[in-house]
Amino acid sequence: MMTPPSQPTASPTADAVEWERKPANIDANLPDYDAAYKSFDWKDVECFFDWSSTGKVNIVHEAIDRHTKGMKRDKIALYYTDYAGRDEKYTFEDLKIQTSRFAGVLKRAGVKKGDRVGTFLPRTPELYIAILGIHRVGAIPVPLFEAFMEQAVEDRLGNSEAKVCVTSPALKGRIPKPKLPALKTLILVGQIEGLADDEMSYELEMSEALDWVEPEWLTLDDGLIIHYTSGSTGKSKGALHRQYAMVGHYQTAKWALDLREEDIYWCTADPGWVTGTSYGIYGPWTLGVTSVVIGGRFDPDRWFETIQRYKVSMWYSAPTAYRMLMSAGEVIPKKYDLGSLRHICSVGEPLNPEALKWIKKITGHAPHETWWMTETGMQLICNYRSKDFPIGCTGKPFPGTSATVVDDQGKEVLPGTLGHLVVKPGWPAMMKEIWNNKAKYDEYFRIPGWYLSGDTAYKDAQGYIWYQGRADDVIKTAGERVGPFEVESALVAHPAVAEAGVIGKPDAVRGAIIKAFIALRKGYQPSDQLKKEIADFVKTHMAAHAAPREITFVDKVPKTRSGKIMRRVLRAWDQGLPVGDISTMED
Ligand code: WTA
């Protein structure tokens, strides 16, 4: 276990002083945090779900079907545009029909309760329909981010032993079927001709499918979804969540995102990552709220246009996006009417005060932090709409949860002292297991009585938690979580690379960029051309966001005598700092 340094690296005081206090938003869904923290019980939320009286559980019923029996039948659930020809809207009734049809398609492909089904699609309505259709048959979606290349796809579909994958003609070439014995069928969105024996056409099958398929009834403990995520060692691991997680999604979307009936809500995350499902699907739709999804690449004009066009009132995005908007300048947001906004939240990395203030300046609203992880399934430490918060702080534990800062032994540390950010196990969306890897799961609980997040933080005297960094080598680049080992494995597969060590290098916009130290094989000469070739190699094998943006050639990558890469030394090299104790280094 890495021991965090004993002193916080940043002090809240300077910025907190100049932080303009906001008026108390007593009209917030959570008007009094302190009172709720004392009395709230998760059991009180269960009555909002039909399963609490019927005993029949399925997220698709709670997120879609039940709304179609009442006033929300014809309410828009999903607005979609890609600003390139597709401009669509779907009511809850439409989604009931579409996801029923897709459930029929999956049944024809032989999918049964508990089977894993991959989704490997761009952000389009079909992706949302596919995920919910998978739920309808009681199977477990395994969403793959559309930028993944072959190795990343193979790792995830292989580990989860997915039986079917829903994909497109453009992406299917990255699915190495011969290496995936469990994968029987591909369902192709956007192809109706020239299908191979193991391929089905989404369009053809949907057109012949029935409009109503009753959900497969499950228990609260049955699987909901597997999201793959990265750690500091080994390949990506699959965090499996249970159906009961919906209780957490629902209540955090109500109290932290402050979602209301009349909101137009825009979560900018892709369902390939946990934010895009917990808060792009489950939270808003169990509440029956209208969601906006846009396809295509990031573009500052399009983003502000989206707020104006749909009159977005609640916006959930990430620090890198806020910083990218900020660096595009003030002229763009001034072209659009952003007056519909009433609340903004942020997730994925700490939001720096400059970006927070800039967003507040152009929208009138400061983004509120929400801290959580793939493994936690739901928001756990947040700043709430009704409550003042010092600028730069991560927030306070969500009612019904207990998060704090402890030392290596699990003892709470004094205010202002840096330690491990931990959570008391038992919140509704806590992962059920790491798929096929009990040892990895157990690592999260190695401080008895706590879930160990891997983040370092301190608590101040008022009980606010201040995130300080990771205690391990996990990299957050542009909000995406990347494991150094995965990038190193991809790098050493290049013929020129003998050894590689990868770190996150601090970056003003992206939070961190991926930097690789590479020792070349005999016969290869360092050159800029070779750097580009190696970076492209990672891009085409793993994913563009995982490719190193900076490469330094070295004679040898520093390792311990047992062969572990000393990333601490690489970070010191990168920053031009003393390398510290290297007594464990080989040679
Ligand atoms: C980081 C994303 C600071 C943290 C939902 C955590 C944050 C990791 C915040 C999980 C925040 C997330 N402030 N850091 N508000 N939210 N993080 O699994 O290091 O992609 O451990 O889940 O992101 O990343 P993941």
Walk me through what this model shows:
The chain has 587 residues and is of the alpha/beta class. A hairpin with a 7-residue loop joins strand 8 and strand 9 (237-242). Helix 5 packs across helix 6 (125-136) and helix 12 packs across helix 14. The protein is globular and about 70 Å long. It binds 5'-O-[(S)-ethoxy(hydroxy)phosphoryl]adenosine (WTA). Residues 229, 274-275, 347-350, 369-374, 394, 453-455, 467, 470, 476, 481 line the site of 5'-O-[(S)-ethoxy(hydroxy)phosphoryl]adenosine.
CATH architecture of the domain at 87-238: 3-Layer(aba) Sandwich
Outline type: globular
Distance between the termini: 24 Å
Order the strands across the largest sheet as they lie in space: 2-1-11-10-12-13-14-15-16
CATH topology grouping of the domain at 87-238:
Rossmann fold
Low-confidence segments, given as residue ranges, are 1-5, 10-14
Tell me the name of the CATH class of the domain at 87-238. Answer: Alpha Beta
Instruction: Please indicate the percent range of residues in DSSP E strands (runs of 2 or more).
Output: 15-25%
* Strands, total number: 26
User: Could you say which structural class the secondary elements and strand pairing correspond to?
Assistant: alpha/beta
Q: List each distinct ligand once.
A: 5'-O-[(S)-ethoxy(hydroxy)phosphoryl]adenosine
Radius of gyration: 24 Å
